[in-house]
Amino acid sequence: MEGAERAAYPVSAVVLAGGDSRRMGTDKAFLKMPGGGTIIEATLSKLARLSEEIILVTNRTQRYEPLGVKLVADIYPGKGSLGGIYTGLCAMSHSHGLVVACDMPFLKPPLLRYMLVMAPEYDVVVPRAVPWGGLKGLKEGEETAKEHLLHPLHAVYAKSCLEPMRDLLEKGDLRIISFYPRVRVRYVEEGEIDVFDPEHLSFFNINTPADLRRAEGLLQKEEPY
User: Fold this and answer.
1) Which of 221, 204, 209 lies closest to 106 in space, CA to CA?
2) Closest CA relative to residue 46, chosen from 8, 7, 13, 87
3) Whole-model pTM?
4) Cα 46 to chain centroid, rounded
5) Given phi > 0 = left and psi -120 to 50 = alpha, else beta, which region is 177?
6) Which of 22, 121, 123, 131 lies at 20 to 30 Å from 207 by C-alpha?
């Protein structure tokens, strides 16, 4: 059954676990969720339904060894999520990789599978949608609206992105979307996303204790996938 859920072509899955979790005060990947298990375990379980190769990018490899997935350390340490994506793409065996952050407890495999179906024709497949909770949490000047509506840590990337990514990393431009004009991008729009995830919970990530409390409440109502 699981094999039938995977993409028609082989893809990798890349999980970024490189953040220092300063706002949470502890490693958020290992936070316990209702019903047992941790956020990272739930994430890996969902990704295993989509890919046989899961790569976890972290500079704390010893902590993650018990999870039994491929671990790689940043090629460009201290270069944020862009550096993590670059590292994951370098390590993967396949031409395309599904990239997610380690702190997203509401990933929807049907939406991810939909993105993977169209990925062979593009270098990037990325959702463009208002996140769960709307824009009210956005601080003035923190991000542009365009950046906020894109979700580059819930996206599919091809190895063809490596050269433009490397150019950004070497220039010190760490904004993931800065290389998008150089590649073929498929934006997954709200109407498409709503078919699989009308509340846009896929893009909910946990950064603070308040986020964790909200996630715990939402998880009680989540439908199984």
Assistant:
1) 204
2) 13
3) 0.87
4) 12
5) alpha
6) 123
Q: What is the pLDDT of residue 115?
A: 97
Reported as a pLDDT band with limits 50, 70 and 90, residue 225 is: low
Structure tokens that stand for 133 in this block: 């909770």
Q: What are the pLDDT digits (tens) for 103-130?
A: 888 999 999 999 999 999 999 999 999 8
Please check the confidence at residue 49 and state whether its pLDDT lies above 70. Answer: yes
The residues spanned by each domain of the chain are 2-219
Contacts of 184 (CB under 8 A, 6+ apart): 121, 122, 123, 124
How many Cβ atoms from other residues are within 10 Å of residue 175's Cβ?
15
Residue 169 half-sphere exposure, CB side, CA atoms within 13 Å? 20
- Give pLDDT, residue 7: 64
Assess contact for 200 and 113: CB atoms under 8 A. Answer: no
Length of the chain in terms of residues written: 225
Rounded CA separation 98/155 (Å): 6
Structurally, at CATH architecture level, domain 2-219 sits in Alpha-Beta Complex (3.90)
Mean pLDDT computed over every residue of the chain: 86
